[in-house]
Design a protein that fits this description.
By secondary structure, the protein is α+β, with helices and mostly antiparallel strands. The protein has helices at residues 10-20, 78-86, 92-96, 111-125, 132-141, 152-161, 190-211, 267-270, 282-289, and strands at residues 25-32, 35-41, 50-55, 58-63, 67-71, 99-102, 107-109, 186-188, 225-228, 231-234, 239-240, 246-253, 259-263, 279-281, 294-295. It is elongated and about 85 Å long.
Length: 308
């Protein structure tokens, strides 16, 4: 991708998205082949929400953060495009080329990038125009500011108008910004980046919905269930963690309300009379791998008309 295109690091936006959506749950409003409508929100409604809507060649992300529509004509199912091109996270640069409509900008003026470029320019100029950096700072950030650089238009106007002539020098030696017309002062807008993370996370949750049986309002004491990070676990079933170990609920809960589970494939457990001695909580187990557990024999969830 283009160097410096993102105003914040991918780690920063990923951490923010994870923090703001940790308690979100998915609701399948419609699921019929390529026609889908999925909604993601915190049950208490205190955080940002979003929805994913798909139809042939199109994917729309809509929510409290913004609206973006992506399209690739050769790709019939846009979920496949996101899955195949996301890798370790959103592909901001590649997906930018696929945006065909948006309610918010994909890229916008980045004051941080502007300040960085100007600082580098002034640092190179300082040996020839001593004091130019201090004068620029006083006119931009001083008590009496000469320019407004909070917008791209204002920032470029400030560079165009700024002059500095060191005392005792000829007018011909006046400093001015040159060659800055081709500076790209835009970066990916945070709303676009957040929405890209929403697409990746939403499709991940959707794929889990199809792979792990859903448990809807199980009768008390008959089909115990436990919801964690948007995934509803049927505790009467065995699960496999990413390392391949099998786990089963012991019928007990820890003090934080997480189910206590025992590892069925750990030899040390098999040799103990009390398997609970080698148990763990499902929340801790999921936290170790940072991803949901998978059912040993996955079946297809048919909620909302989904078919494998």
């Amino acid at each position: 991708g283009r160097v410096g295109r993102c105003r914040v690091s991918t780690e920063d936006i990923a951490a923010r998205f994870a923090r703001e959506t940790a308690e979100h749950e998915m609701t399948v409003l419609h699921d019929d082949g390529l026609y889908r409508h999925l909604r993601f929100a915190d049950p208490d409604g205190s955080h940002d929400w979003w929805s994913l809507t798909t139809w042939p060649h199109k994917l729309a992300i809509n929510g409290s953060v913004g609206t973006y529509v992506f399209s690739v004509v050769p790709t019939v199912d846009m979920f496949d495009l996101i899955r195949q091109s996301s890798g370790n996270g959103p592909n901001f640069d590649y997906w930018e080329e696929k945006v065909v409509a948006s309610g918010e900008p994909v890229v916008s003026f980045a004051s941080e990038l502007f300040e960085k470029r100007v600082a580098e320019y002034l640092a190179k100029s300082e040996p020839y125009w001593p004091g130019v950096t201090a004068v620029w700072e006083s006119e931009i950030n001083g008590f009496w500011t000469h320019y407004d650089t909070t917008t791209e238009e204002g920032a470029r106007h400030a560079m165009h108008q700024f002059r500095y002539q060191p005392e005792g020098t000829a007018e011909a030696d006046t400093f001015r910004f040159r060659g800055t017309g081709d500076w790209d002062l835009r970066a990916h807008d945070w709303r676009y980046m957040w929405s890209c993370h929403a697409a990746v996370d939403g499709i991940r949750r959707y794929d889990l919905h199809r792979a792990i049986p859903a448990v809807e309002a199980p009768p008390a004491n008959l089909t115990p269930a436990w919801r964690h990070k948007g995934v509803l676990y049927d505790l009467t079933r065995d699960y496999r963690d990413p390392s391949g170990d099998h786990w089963r609920w012991l019928g007990t809960w820890d003090e934080d309300g997480s189910p206590q589970v025992v590892c069925l494939t750990d030899p040390s457990v098999q040799d103990q009379a009390d398997p609970a001695a080698a148990s763990d909580s499902m929340a801790s187990l999921i936290g170790l791998y940072d991803e949901p557990l998978r059912h040993l024999r996955p079946t297809v969830a048919t909620r909302g008309g989904a078919h494998a």
